[in-house]
Specification:
Elements: H1 8-17, E1 20-28, H2 44-58, H3 63-66, E2 69-76
C-alpha cells in the first residue's frame, strides 16, 4: 500500500463529486506528531493537559490547518438530482 496525503480542499472536491459535503473537520497530532514513537506517555495530569490542548488546537484555526493528519466528517447532500429535487 502506498502512503497517501490529502489536502482538505482536494478531499472536499473529491467528496463533492460523490454527493458528500464536509460538515466538520479536525486537525490531528498538532503538537504530538514530532514525539518519538517509543517515547513514554506523559503521566496523569500532563497527559490530560496534552490531550486537552490537542483537542482544542485540532478544532481551531490556524492550528488545525498545520496538523499532519485530518479527520473529516462528511454528509450526503440531500438536494440534487439523485434525490429528486
Amino acid at each position: 500500500m502506498s502512503p497517501r496525503a490529502d489536502r482538505l480542499d482536494d478531499l472536499t472536491r473529491s467528496l463533492g463529486r460523490h454527493g458528500l459535503s464536509v460538515s466538520e473537520w479536525y486537525g490531528v497530532r498538532v503538537f504530538t506528531d514530532t514525539a518519538a514513537s517509543d517515547a513514554p506517555a506523559p503521566n496523569g495530569g500532563q497527559l490530560t493537559a496534552l490531550l486537552d490542548c490537542e483537542e482544542r488546537a485540532g478544532r481551531t484555526d490556524p492550528y488545525r490547518r498545520v496538523a499532519p493528519l485530518l479527520h473529516v466528517i462528511a454528509n450526503r447532500d440531500m438536494i440534487g438530482p439523485r434525490f429528486g429535487h
